[in-house]
Write a structure and sequence with these properties.
The protein is globular, with a radius of gyration of 17 Å. It has a 5-stranded parallel β-sheet with strand order 3-2-1-4-5, sandwiched between helices. The longest helix is centred in the middle third of the chain and has 16 residues. The protein has 7 helices and 5 strands, in the order βαβαβααβαβαα. With 230 residues, it is of the alpha/beta class.
Length: 230
């Protein structure tokens, strides 16, 4: 597939963490006919190297040549999250909790979107795709629809290209089961993705991200093909 936008093929910057949601979002953008520029951000997270491997594997799978990997490890220096601070334990998942979990990285999506907008301006991209999920996620405040619509206003106000860059959130109101089914339907390489918050070899199966993923596969009547800790 082509990774370049043309007059007949709009270009999208796709935020590709290497997780299942971002992979399905990428598959959706490709299915919609967008040329792809894949952006990955290392921010000092525990599974940084494993997520980068997943990003590389997914890009190779789709033949994406236009890629950018950015380091914003200052988020780890700032701390305040179990994903970036090894002094804070990653807790077992608690789907019933209404509190924002300690795995929330303060204002992470705003930092990542700002980078995506900068790259989109230079590339002349029409859209930014992000695999955020609001209804069946860990309750992060920067994964809500109001956040993304407000950020679009920031783009329109503060960028040279103005409102020509839109933020696409195709998974925002889907459940994990919906996402699994959608991914399989699109032929997304879910076996190459990595969702675990704390392990790099075997997925722990107990953190919020693993539990939501496993719940999604079970509800969809599918079996997850990645390896979980015995």
């Amino acid at each position: 597939m082509s990774d370049a936008g043309t007059p007949n093929t709009p270009l999208a910057v796709v935020l590709l963490s290497g997780g299942m949601d971002s992979c399905v979002t990428l598959a959706h953008a490709i299915e919609r006919g967008f040329g792809i520029a894949a952006l990955h951000v290392n921010y000092g997270q525990r599974t940084q190297q494993r997520e980068l491997q997943a990003f590389t594997d997914i890009c190779e799978y789709y033949g994406i040549g236009r890629t950018l990997v950015v380091n914003i490890s200052h988020l780890a220096q700032i701390g305040g999250s179990a994903l970036t601070d090894t002094g804070i334990d990653v807790p077992p998942g608690d789907p019933e909790s209404a509190r924002i979990p300690v795995t929330y990285v303060p204002f992470r999506n705003a930092n990542i979107l700002a980078i995506a907008v900068s790259w989109a301006e230079v590339l002349g991209a029409d859209a930014i795709f992000i695999g955020a999920v609001e209804e069946d996620s860990s309750g992060y405040p920067d994964c809500r629809e109001v956040f993304f619509r407000t950020f679009e206003q920031v783009i329109a106000t503060g960028s040279a290209t103005g409102s020509s860059i839109s933020i696409h959130t195709p998974l925002l109101h889907r459940t994990k089961a919906d996402i699994v089914t959608m991914g399989i339907g699109l032929g997304a390489p879910l076996h190459l993705t990595w969702s675990c918050y704390q392990n790099n070899t075997y997925a722990c199966g107990t953190c919020d991200s693993c539990m939501l993923r496993l719940k999604g596969f079970a509800a969809a009547g599918m079996t997850d093909s990645i390896t979980y800790q015995p």
